[in-house]
Amino acid sequence: MLDDFLIRALLAGIGIAMVAGPAGCFIVWRRLAYFGETIAHSALLGVAIAVLVNLHLVIGIFVTAVVVVLAMYYLERRDTLPTDTLLGLLSHGGLAVGLVLLSFFPDMRLDLQGLLFGDILAVSRLDLAVVWGGGAIALGMLWWIWRPLLAATVSPDLATVARLHPERALLVFGILLAAVIAAAIKIVGVLLIVALLIIPSATVRRFTSSPEQMAAGAAVAGVIAVAGGLLASATLDTPSGPSIVVTALAVFLVTRLGRPRREVNAR
Predict the structure, then answer these.
(1) Per-position DSSP letters for 190-216, written without gaps between them
(2) Secondary structure class of 262 (helix, strand, coil)
(3) What is the helix (H) or strand (E) element at residue 47, kind and residue range?
(4) Distance between CA atoms of residues 168 and 104, nearest Å
(5) Of 75, 144, 183, 227, whose CB neighbour count within 10 A is largest?
């Protein structure tokens, strides 16, 4: 029999993987890995704000991440700086401001290592409700914007001509990504959540023939990584969050040895 905390950890990991897989496909297709990292780095600033106003950490992280998404959306259209430069400013600026604010609370007991690398074994029933409830909402949002987001990935101009509102779809996707990262922080941490978004999608890309197949396959690959990582962590007494990502990486490397059917992209 599995202990209760292991069952909660497995359920939480599965909930995150089922959302992170499909969302990660668009990160791979649109080459948004740095964008995801920027949102993840803003999590520490969200933690500091949550402490200041006495909010739940997930709420503070989500609100801060949404502000970062909106700032990026605005600056891309108002500033002449390249996108990667703006992402660098927001990413490292948010991380630094968060660390500085946290330094004003020396007596506060905060598990920074857990925030950075995750602590899936400490998932509570409330965390589980947040993961699955938020995940259901995120999947619903992704289904709603799937067609315009896919069209915007293939050709933004054609998507605009077809009145699919690609700019709105991209903004909604950014908010969705903020929700996924906020819910996943406790599971795999700030530094590893982007890997969980990217690696499962990259793993199945060679073996699927349509965007929908790739989204479903990425979710399955993420679940396998979570289950395998937890098993490895329990067997080898290694950190759970990094073990999940290492397992995902191992699955990716194994699949690279096989002969692919094709590498699907949004087109």
Answers:
(1) TTTHHHHHHHHHHHHTTB-SSHHHHHH
(2) strand
(3) helix 43-53
(4) 38
(5) 183
How confident is the model at residue 200, as a pLDDT? 93
Give mean pLDDT in consecutive 10-residue pieces for the chain, a chain of 267 residues: 77 90 88 79 81 81 87 77 80 82 71 73 84 87 87 75 76 86 77 83 88 92 92 87 89 79 55
Give the global pTM.
0.83
Biggest alpha carbon distance in the chain?
Answer: 59
Separation of first and last alpha carbons in the chain: 46
pLDDT at 1: 47
Please give the full DSSP string across 26-41, using - where no structure is assigned: HHHHHT-HHHHHHHHH
AA identity, residue 106: P
Is the Cβ–Cβ distance between 206 and 199 less than 8 Å? no
Q: Which CATH architecture has domain 4-256?
A: Orthogonal Bundle (1.10)
Contacts of 55 (CB under 8 A, 6+ apart): 49, 63
Contacts of 110 (CB under 8 A, 6+ apart): 47, 51, 102
Total length of the chain: 267
Residue 30: phi and psi, rounded to 5, are: -95, 0
C-alpha 179 chain-centroid distance:
8
Strand extents, DSSP E, 43-158:
none
Strands (E), 148-201: none
The whole-angstrom separation of Cα 161 and Cα 2 is: 54
